[in-house]
Amino acid sequence: MMNMKKIILPVLLCAVLAAGCGKQEETQTQAGIAPPEQETAADTQSAETEAESETESKKTETSEKETESDSDAESETSGEEDSDTKAESDTAQNTETTSTAVTTASGDTAAAAAAETKTQQEETQAAAPVDDNPPDVPEEINIVTEPPVAQIEAPDPDAGAVTEPPAEEDNSTEDLSLTVNYQGYALTVGESAKAFVEAVKPNSEESAPSCYGNGENINYYYDNMTVYVWNENDNYMIYGIDINSPGVVSVKGMDIGSPATFDGEKIYDMGNNCNIMVIASGGVVTGISYNKDL
After folding, report:
1. Cα distances (Å, whole numbers) of residue 108 to 94, 111, 120, 171, 190
2. Side-chain half-sphere of 195: how many Cα atoms within 13 Å?
3. Residue/partner pairs of 184-187 with CB below 8 Å, 24 or more apart
4. Contact call for residues 267 and 275 (beta carbons, < 8 A)
5. What is the pTM of this model?
6. CA pair distance 242, 234, nearest whole angstrom
């Protein structure tokens, strides 16, 4: 009985194993698992797919590495630029700090120099002697300036007729004489009047001691004139004749009462201390005088 069981058990075990293998094979077929020949083709295809995937993965990794390399390069460049910017900022800050320090030092030096100068000035003023007698203040000087000379413009020839300047007065003595004719007698300055006085009686006369210290001075008055005589040793020399009425004598066309271009005296020098003087006032001749200086 036991032997039968030993034989039956292995047989059953083989049967079970055989049934299990068939069932497994069927199960693999149903599950889509290929048989060995098919599995080889599938493995080849799967290997190719895996190779392609691996290749694509490597390409992707390479691209990512390149991207990372570029990104790292850009980061390094940006870092360098930031470093340069920071260096420039540090340099500017150092320059500004140095400039501020120099300015502060200069200001301190200037303030110290100003303080020292002020101290020296105070010491000098304290040491200087006080002048009790200050100098006199000069008087104010007023400078008087003359007004500018007015410029006289020449007349415009197109503005109208130009007035001619007055003719120059004739001061020559060529046609003048020291002789006056009165009632048919000639009276000459510097000569004797004795004959005339004896012939033509004056309206009146007056005499006085001569101011020259000798002889006498006699004045003879007529209607139209006055004759001045210096009498010494009976010579009766005429030293002056004054005409006071028209029609007695004319000098350069001027007579008593005639128009004159001047006011005052106009003298004609006749030489030998003798002259003829014409007197005018208000543009009218008022007197004519013949004279000799004694």
Report:
1. 21, 5, 18, 93, 107
2. 8
3. 187/227, 187/238, 187/241
4. yes
5. 0.44
6. 22
